Amino acid sequence: MAHFGQGAVGFINGDDRQPGVRLPSGKEVVLTGSRKASAEAFNQGQRRFLVSTEAGGEGIDLQARCHTLIHVDLPWNPMRLHQRVGRLNRYGQTRPVEVVTVRNPHTGEARIWGKLEQRLGHIMEGLSHAMDESEDLMQMALGMTGPAFFNGVFAEGQTVGADRLDAWFDAKTGNLGGGLPSLLSWT
Description:
The protein is of the alpha/beta class.
């Protein structure tokens, strides 16, 4: 707001209020607004930026004016990330969607995410030879694995040393995507 003006930023969260917002004048205020009103203001160009918690991950369409998403927190379930990107990457989007993920590379979570992204990439590569729609393939691969699996991988992975992470991860995720990598290896 200090750089782009007081009305440049909208927000979506579960409370429909954001305390502790510092205006360019230095005054601290509480902003209020429903998720629907915030999304509409953003889509109509009244807000340049939209900051959201997980409350904005479903049920709003942002493709008309937005093509860049910056993740500053990573849920342990990749399907939730896929849903976030789906707010932008949908029918009517006219530009390539850019997704930026901010993470500390020195954490166990970041190492697990890197391995998970690599594994999902291999699944997608194998499936892409059989189907055209890569977005649907990602949803299919993630949908074959429940949220409890990802919660377990991230929780347990925090306790695995970096020297054992590769072997542990390979053993733990061998059936990721319903065993699709092994099914595809014989084709």
